Automatic annotation (TrEMBL):
Signal peptide: none annotated. The keyword Metal-binding does not apply. InterPro entries: Acyl_CoA_acyltransferase, GNAT_dom. This is GNAT family N-acetyltransferase.
Length: 174
């Protein structure tokens, strides 16, 4: 069995052919509040990013993978490990499923695959996720895989003229 292959999806490294999908996602303002983005990305800048995406997690301190359907190889989302700290054996995790691919089980399968990869191949001790308090779907998803709420950041995200609280979730590999 391949490590980054599931029953319905594969996780794979980003390629230049993914430029259009990445451009669409990165320039969708509805995601900016959770990705700390405040301006659009040009295709040129994203192409440069993809050309340098060959760096491994030890160099880049992050791992960004495309989520694609196994049968069709259609791009359905992205999943990331970020803020990788090898000494402390931890990383943050984030996931995004494009709106037309939500509620199909892709997020659950991708999260399960990446958790397994992080603990077995990267030897991480813990993974953490930051989720706004009103993101009920993400909270349910991460709790399904054993993530525990360990903190609350009050008024952490400012969007549409209002502050939102952000929850900190953690999964420790015992």
């Amino acid at each position: 069995m391949k490590t980054l292959t599931g029953k319905h999806i594969n996780l794979r490294a980003l390629e230049l052919a993914d430029l259009t999908f990445l451009y669409t996602i990165e320039n969708d303002e509805s995601y900016w509040s959770v990705s700390n983005t405040q301006k659009p990305f040009s295709k040129f800048l994203l192409q440069q990013y993809l050309e340098n995406a060959h760096q491994d997690i030890y160099q880049a301190k992050q791992l960004r993978l495309l989520i694609e359907e196994s049968k069709t190889t259609n791009s359905v989302g992205l999943i990331d490990l970020f803020d990788y700290e090898p000494k402390h054996r931890r990383a943050g995790i984030g996931i995004l499923i494009s709106p037309n691919n939500e509620n199909k089980g892709y997020a659950s399968e991708a999260l399960e695959i990446l958790i397994n990869y992080a603990f077995t191949h990267l030897d991480l001790h813990q993974i953490h996720a930051n989720i706004t308090e009103d993101n009920i779907k993400s909270i349910a998803l991460f709790e399904k895989f054993g993530f525990k709420k360990i903190g609350l950041k009050k008024d952490w995200i400012f969007i549409n003229g209002k502050f939102k609280n952000e929850l900190l979730y953690q999964l420790i590999n015992d």
